[in-house]
Amino acid sequence: DFLLALDEVKPAFGADDAELEDAIPYGIMHFSPSIAAILNDGLLYVENVRQQERLRHTAVLLHGPPASGKTALAAHIAMKSGYPFIKIITPASMVGFRDEVAKKDHLHKIFTDAYKSPLSMLIIDNIERIIEWNPVGPRLSNNILQALVTLLQTPPPKGHRLLILATTSRQSVMEQLDISSAFDREIRVPAVQDTRELAAVLRESGAFEGPAGGVDEVLDRVREYTNGERVGVGIKTILTTAETARLSAQPAEWFAEQIAGQIARYNPLRG
Amino acid sequence: DFLLALDEVKPAFGADDAELEDAIPYGIMHFSPSIAAILNDGLLYVENVRQQERLRHTAVLLHGPPASGKTALAAHIAMKSGYPFIKIITPASMVGFRDEVAKKDHLHKIFTDAYKSPLSMLIIDNIERIIEWNPVGPRLSNNILQALVTLLQTPPPKGHRLLILATTSRQSVMEQLDISSAFDREIRVPAVQDTRELAAVLRESGAFEGPAGGVDEVLDRVREYTNGERVGVGIKTILTTAETARLSAQPAEWFAEQIAGQIARYNPLRG
Amino acid sequence: DFLLALDEVKPAFGADDAELEDAIPYGIMHFSPSIAAILNDGLLYVENVRQQERLRHTAVLLHGPPASGKTALAAHIAMKSGYPFIKIITPASMVGFRDEVAKKDHLHKIFTDAYKSPLSMLIIDNIERIIEWNPVGPRLSNNILQALVTLLQTPPPKGHRLLILATTSRQSVMEQLDISSAFDREIRVPAVQDTRELAAVLRESGAFEGPAGGVDEVLDRVREYTNGERVGVGIKTILTTAETARLSAQPAEWFAEQIAGQIARYNPLRG
Amino acid sequence: DFLLALDEVKPAFGADDAELEDAIPYGIMHFSPSIAAILNDGLLYVENVRQQERLRHTAVLLHGPPASGKTALAAHIAMKSGYPFIKIITPASMVGFRDEVAKKDHLHKIFTDAYKSPLSMLIIDNIERIIEWNPVGPRLSNNILQALVTLLQTPPPKGHRLLILATTSRQSVMEQLDISSAFDREIRVPAVQDTRELAAVLRESGAFEGPAGGVDEVLDRVREYTNGERVGVGIKTILTTAETARLSAQPAEWFAEQIAGQIARYNPLRG
Amino acid sequence: DFLLALDEVKPAFGADDAELEDAIPYGIMHFSPSIAAILNDGLLYVENVRQQERLRHTAVLLHGPPASGKTALAAHIAMKSGYPFIKIITPASMVGFRDEVAKKDHLHKIFTDAYKSPLSMLIIDNIERIIEWNPVGPRLSNNILQALVTLLQTPPPKGHRLLILATTSRQSVMEQLDISSAFDREIRVPAVQDTRELAAVLRESGAFEGPAGGVDEVLDRVREYTNGERVGVGIKTILTTAETARLSAQPAEWFAEQIAGQIARYNPLRG
Amino acid sequence: DFLLALDEVKPAFGADDAELEDAIPYGIMHFSPSIAAILNDGLLYVENVRQQERLRHTAVLLHGPPASGKTALAAHIAMKSGYPFIKIITPASMVGFRDEVAKKDHLHKIFTDAYKSPLSMLIIDNIERIIEWNPVGPRLSNNILQALVTLLQTPPPKGHRLLILATTSRQSVMEQLDISSAFDREIRVPAVQDTRELAAVLRESGAFEGPAGGVDEVLDRVREYTNGERVGVGIKTILTTAETARLSAQPAEWFAEQIAGQIARYNPLRG
Ligand SMILES: Nc1ncnc2c1ncn2[C@@H]1O[C@H](COP(=O)(O)OP(=O)(O)OP(=O)(O)O)[C@@H](O)[C@H]1O
Ligand SMILES: Nc1ncnc2c1ncn2[C@@H]1O[C@H](COP(=O)(O)OP(=O)(O)OP(=O)(O)O)[C@@H](O)[C@H]1O
Ligand SMILES: Nc1ncnc2c1ncn2[C@@H]1O[C@H](COP(=O)(O)OP(=O)(O)OP(=O)(O)O)[C@@H](O)[C@H]1O
Ligand SMILES: Nc1ncnc2c1ncn2[C@@H]1O[C@H](COP(=O)(O)OP(=O)(O)OP(=O)(O)O)[C@@H](O)[C@H]1O
Ligand SMILES: Nc1ncnc2c1ncn2[C@@H]1O[C@H](COP(=O)(O)OP(=O)(O)OP(=O)(O)O)[C@@H](O)[C@H]1O
Ligand SMILES: Nc1ncnc2c1ncn2[C@@H]1O[C@H](COP(=O)(O)OP(=O)(O)OP(=O)(O)O)[C@@H](O)[C@H]1O
Ligand SMILES: [Mg+2]
Ligand SMILES: [Mg+2]
Ligand SMILES: [Mg+2]
Ligand SMILES: [Mg+2]
Ligand SMILES: [Mg+2]
Ligand SMILES: [Mg+2]
């Protein structure tokens, strides 16, 4: 029934490849040794699952602060995997479904599709949103939650293998809801930690270059602001703010202020 | 597929232009330097999004006390933008839908329409009402909330750009529900702060003019009432109360009393 | 489209005129100067809305203790207004609808009808019941609440004007649910405050007249009971209790006892 | 339209007359002066409503401990009224309806039927059950509650009159849910208070008569048990327990024990 | 319409007779005088209801610890009654219905069927499960609860009589939910209290007989364990555990251990 | 109807045999004497149920920490049973059903199928997931819970026998929800307790063998970590982690670290 399966499944290349690429608009920058470690870990599981026999699936949770690069890293690992079936499930791909039952059914269908390929990868992005969690109440869709936890723990049929990469910026919520224990392994994705890492990001991205020596000005100001302590802002925030500055021809000063605002937001005690 | 998209989308001019104009019945008065700053900021994002490539969307939250002019300012920015697709989503435009599922679907449809244009702006007015928030319970539509937060964070397809301007008079609720973090930037819209600003508004609107020297009487009375401290009343309240006074030929005294009542309402400790 | 609108809307005269009259079975008695003030205020808004141009609607909340005459006063103002479209929405007119969605749709339809006339008045009676509020839980229909608040704040289309008079005996609930802020103005309707006002009501209604000198006996007994302090009973209670006494030929004593029971109910500390 | 109404309404005599009689299987015994007072009060309202013109309806709540005779008294008043339309709404008549919406619609229909007759009486029995109240939660049907409270306060159309008698053994629940204030008047139905009243009931019912002098034995034992204090057991309990004793040929002793058990139940501190 | 009714109702003999027998697999053993007392009480009500005229129904609640024999005793009473209509409603007979509305309708239908016979008995087994009670929340079906309480208190039509026997192992829940007051009488079914009663059960059942003198060994061990205090284990547990021991050829020791485990479970303070 | 039943039921061999085997990918290792005891106990019930006559069913709960081997042990017992009807109900087999009603119906259908065979076994795996329990709220499907508890306690028709093996890693939840009392017996499945047991597992599985003497290194490191105290990690975790190490050619050190992480997770006070 393997040949049959190949028939039934539309090639994953193309459509989803574009979607994966789209998740990494600024590429992957090596601003810290932890980036290589994460990719290494991810690819280790890619190879591992490929060879599994008695084990037939592995579920990995990438967690870290907002904007720290979780989705991009998962997409990067997927693109490097060479797996014949790759699918990314995002909250955006769920919005069109009527209600939680329809969403749960869609989730189930994607897993069922993945089971048809001998080697599949599913990225489940922002699982706190997939289960419709919101902090007041608290509220969530128990319907989707139950399906998700069950699917995370169920191996595909014999002769098939499945790697699941999920992302979340709410690890504590995952613990609280007992979702964490459905994963075989967790990988922590850090924010940009200090001004040295910030410098690396800005230099690699080419932001604030030119005669004005903007990068140094940015770093000076941020150092002033943090007084040498933790920066703790996600790389996505840094890169998109830098692009905004560039498009609007804003000076380094404006950029530094924005970053300071973000530091205050995520480090309330100091800000 | 761009030409196709132009075909599918009804021209935004006309219908919504009238709606935008209707949101600014008293024009925009420059009673404080912050007004120019807000408009500047807004137009900066208008230009920025127009040029985006890797980034493809930006979501901005205008928040401020009730009646402070949030909707008018968003509408003004939209009218100045020159964007080919502009749509305003208000709680009133949602009332006709049966239930939260129908509302969520409508919201989704509007975003899907916006994605068809190369350059779109969506104004989402009073998002606390869009999600059906009420302070007792507390209650809200998690269905709409999840869709909204997801749509705020999702870029349009490649080659398309989207600017979202949302308004709220309940910023603390946005924080509580973790909606704030879905915005790229927040702009604070202030109330009319002091009697100097109040004077500017009254003079520009032409209220209480004439031989009776009404404006000065108003200011004297309000000064008496506030004892020189913060006024903190929204410009919409001031302008509509002044019009009410004019239509009913009420004296400056009546107007001052009404304003005093509003000050008491929003500054309970003093009133 | 104004002529068209006239066609579409059934004349408000007749049907609703009878309904308005039916809300004032005992007429309006001037037992206190506040009655004239309330009517004055109401008619001021009637004239004001008639002349509105930039402003196109006003929402006024009549609140006061149970039986204080809120509905009768609103109906009286409506009858005096001369508006071409007048409609009264009561909890009784909502009972026949299946559920909160049907009720919400009905509410919306009435507003939509009102928008077709150039000058409309809507009375929304007992809004705490319209939103299905009950004190245990607390519970309410958030569906209807959201529609109501939105409709209260939405002006009719250009060239149309709308005056909304709503009534409630639960002002604190309105504050709690943040419904109050959707009104442009609040008018307080007082109960019958003291024995002097009570005397005025009894005399104007012709109750306890005749040789037996019943009114004085009533007043003496009530004075005894209240020890000269606040009466605080609604005029509807007084008039219907007096009619009950008359129909059953009960003496002044019986009437005074009933009133005392009501005083105890609404002034628990003393009773 | 009065003649028409007569046509549409099936004669109330017959069907409901049997149902009313069925509610008074043991007749009405005058074991205490309060019984005559209650009947008097009830018939006073029967006559009163008959003559109403400006007033068109009255709602009376009969409340008292379980088994105290509330339903029988309401049925008795109805039978004596001579009203052309009488209908009794019991929880049992509601069981067959699918859900709270169907029950609410049924309630509404019965009121609408009553409005067609010029003079109608509705008995609403055990309103705490009609609204589906249960003490855990607490829970109830807000749907039915809202309809009930609204219908209690709504007069029939002009030229029609309506008397509503409702019963409850949960007056405190009525207060809590703000249902009490929808009634024009409350009548308290007492339990059998002391051994003197108990003796009257037993003698009138003919229980424990014969050579064995059973009534005195019962009274002695109950006196012993209560130590001369309050009995507080409903007349229905007394009469059905006596009938059970008679059918099973149980001695006075057995009866006294059962009554003691009931005293303990409703007077927990002493029992 | 009595002859007609006989036509409509399928004979209760046969089908339900087998079901009743099936509820008493081990017969009724007289291990304590309370057993005869309970049966006596039950049959007293059987005869009583048969003769009722003004009274037309009686509802009796059998309550006691789990496995104490409530269902078997109710079934035994029913089999001895000679009533022409007997029906047992168990949670198992409800599982097949879709939801609480379908279950409520089924319950109602069974009562309606019973009303067609001149003399009916309904056994409602484990009413805490019938109302879907579970201790977390707490949760229950208010829909079914309301129907049940109403049906328990409603007499059949004139000329018909109904005896209801209900069972529960959660008397405190019945009190909490105010279900207890819907019963005319409660009968307590005790567990096997002490080793003397345990001996009686084992001897009558023939367990642990033979040369090995097993019964005495069991008793010695249990005495040791309870230190002469209360046993408090239901007879069903004792009989099924003894049968399990016999089928698996387990020694008296194994049996005693199991019983000790049960004692610990239901007497946590000692165990 | 027994022959008929055989016709209606598809042979359990084949399909479910493969499923049972699939639940034991690493076989059953005898790392502790408790394993033999559990299997013995299980098979004792297999034989017991086979011989039952008056008793017709037994329900056994296997509970223990996550990954301790509950499902494998239940499957092993089933495979050894020789029963003609065996069916395993897992959360995964429930995911495809629309909602809790559909799931409940499916559960019911499986029991009804089992009743058709003279001798059936049902494995209900992870019952906390079957009832959709999640720790926040807490939430669960009362619909499924009620059906499950009822089905656990209901014997099949005469001449049929049923053994139910259920598994859970949340025994305290079962107690809280009063599900435990629906079981006739509980069997505790332990985690791998100490380094001696860990050694037995690793040796039997052939992990870390070869010249490098990996097992000893693992044990040394784990001993270091636990300081000689409890290990408390499930055998599934140990075996799959060892396979992961092997597939990725990770050293003993990596494995020991992973195990240490698990110890920390399940023994938070020490870790
Ligand atoms: N080392 C890196 N790791 C991850 N992303 C990187 C890295 N270097 C550059 N990037 C860029 O940073 C961005 C990371 O954004 P991404 O959406 O992955 O963050 P996220 O953590 O998923 O955010 P969110 O919390 O909103 O889901 C991408 O545009 C990516 O191209
Ligand atoms: N500088 C200004 N900014 C905004 N509005 C202004 C300004 N000057 C005059 N206006 C007028 O004030 C009114 C502002 O009303 P608007 O509805 O925008 O307030 P809002 O803050 O959206 O109120 P709400 O809290 O009710 O949503 C408009 O009529 C607008 O024409
Ligand atoms: N000055 C007055 N103001 C209002 N009503 C008056 C006045 N004088 C007499 N009435 C009579 O008193 C009655 C007032 O009843 P109305 O239903 O308006 O009270 P309400 O406050 O709306 O009661 P509820 O709290 O039950 O809604 C009417 O019958 C009206 O004719
Ligand atoms: N004075 C009396 N008042 C009421 N009922 C009486 C009186 N004398 C005798 N009875 C008999 O007592 C019984 C009263 O029962 P009824 O059902 O009216 O009580 P209830 O208070 O409605 O009970 P519940 O609380 O269960 O609704 C009837 O059978 C009635 O015939
Ligand atoms: N005196 C007795 N009373 C009741 N049952 C007895 C007695 N003697 C023997 N038995 C047997 O004991 C068993 C009692 O089980 P039954 O199902 O009636 O208990 P239960 O209290 O209804 O249990 P549950 O709490 O589970 O509903 C039956 O098999 C019955 O044959
Ligand atoms: N003695 C044993 N008992 C159970 N399983 C064993 C044993 N020896 C080896 N195994 C293997 O260990 C694994 C046990 O996994 P299983 O799924 O049964 O654990 P579980 O306790 O059901 O886990 P979960 O808590 O996730 O449901 C199986 O692969 C099985 O082959
Ligand atoms: Mg992401
Ligand atoms: Mg606004
Ligand atoms: Mg009113
Ligand atoms: Mg009654
Ligand atoms: Mg039972
Ligand atoms: Mg398992």
Explained architecture:
By secondary structure, chain A is an alpha/beta fold. Helix content of chain A is 52%, strand content 11%. Chain A contains 13 helices and 5 strands. Chain A has helices at residues 2-8, 15-22, 33-51, 70-81, 91-94, 100-116, 127-130, 142-153, 171-176, 195-205, 214-226, 235-247, 252-266; strands at 57-63, 85-89, 119-124, 161-168, 185-188. Chain A has a 5-stranded parallel beta sheet, with helices on both faces. The radius of gyration of chain A is 20 Å and the shape is globular. Chains in contact: A-B, A-F, B-C, C-D, D-E, E-F. The A-B interface holds A 22, 25-26, 66, 90-92, 94-96, 98-99, 129, 132, 134-137, 139, 240, 243-244, 247-248 and B 44, 47-48, 51-52, 54-55, 58, 101, 104-105, 108, 138, 140, 142-143, 145-147, 149-151, 153-154, 158, 176-178, 181, 184. The structure holds adenosine-5'-triphosphate (6 copies) and magnesium ion (MG) (6 copies). Residues 70-71, 125-126, 167 of chain C line the site of one magnesium ion (MG).
Descriptive keywords:
homohexamer; 271 residues; alpha/beta; Rossmann fold; 2 domains; 5-stranded parallel beta sheet; 13 helices; 5 strands; globular; binds adenosine-5'-triphosphate; binds magnesium ion
Short description:
Six copies of one chain form a homohexamer. The first copy, chain A, is α/β, with parallel strands linked by helices and 271 residues long. Chain A has helices at residues 2-8, 15-22, 33-51, 70-81, 91-94, 100-116, 127-130, 142-153, 171-176, 195-205, 214-226, 235-247, 252-266, and strands at residues 57-63, 85-89, 119-124, 161-168, 185-188.
